[in-house]
Amino acid sequence: MKVTAVSKFFAELIGTMVLVLMGCGSAVIAGADGTTGVGLLGIAFAFGLSVVAMAYAIGHISGCHINPAISIAMVAAGRMKAGEAAYYILAQIIGAIIGAAILWAIASGKAEYMGGLGQNGYGDFSPQKYNLQSGLIAEVIFTFIFLLVILGSTSTKNINGGFAGLSIGLSLVLIHIVGIPITGVSVNPARSIGPALLKGGEALSQVWLFIVAPIAGAVLAAIVWSLLLERPEQKAA
After folding, report:
1. What 8-state DSSP symbol labels residue 153?
2. What is the pLDDT of residues 24-41, one digit of tens each?
3. Average of pLDDT values for 171-180?
């Protein structure tokens, strides 16, 4: 049966909603101080496991991008048309907003809730006060690494393609283990936009970084992959 554009749209919407709800929810609800709740390592695994779960749930429908940076990289690598990527990105942003809204609806039921939604930040709003430069470098390089894993794992030349969801999810865990103290980790513009829109204030004023840097890292990965790793002559073959 042919997968329709509508099916892909709702797959990306639902997948991104789950990523934001479960990933950011692990920080907001399950505990982020390392002494109670799941701590940093638990949050890292929550994001990665969300990707693994959705990869096997919707991967056969939409490819489970659930991240505008991935869709843009697929266009840059010649694996996707720009028009298709546009409605993927729209679905991802809507899904992220819904996920953040559900998280707020749940978390606000606790009297001590301070209003956080797992939003990303730098400077005074970085978990460990890393500045703009550190945040920019981290988000570009971490997204670059993430997209190399995705492009390699989903390559038609990869004989272990059935495990792509696992390798991609675990790479996201790795990135979060290192990156949470710096920015809270985005590597995904939709994941940042959803919480920032609902939180407002400084979260919204800083969200530009978490749009620009992941896209830059993703495009760089697509270029490196296409020109240096998966040679044009290999593509033709």
Report:
1. H
2. 999 998 865 544 578 899
3. 97
Distance between CA atoms of residues 38 and 122, nearest Å: 23
Strands (E) across the chain are located at none
d(CA 176, CA 161): 23
Torsion of CA 115, 116, 120, 125, to 10 degrees: 80
One-character DSSP codes across 69-80: HHHHHHHHTTSS
Calculate the dihedral angle through the C-alpha atoms of 44, 158, 147, 77, rounding to the nearest 10 degrees: -160
pLDDT digits 0-9 by tens, 75-115: 999 999 999 999 999 999 999 999 999 999 999 998 888 88
CB 192 within 8 Å of CB 162: no
Amino acid sitting at position 79: R
Q: Residue 200 contacts by C-beta under 8 Å, 6 or more apart in sequence?
A: none
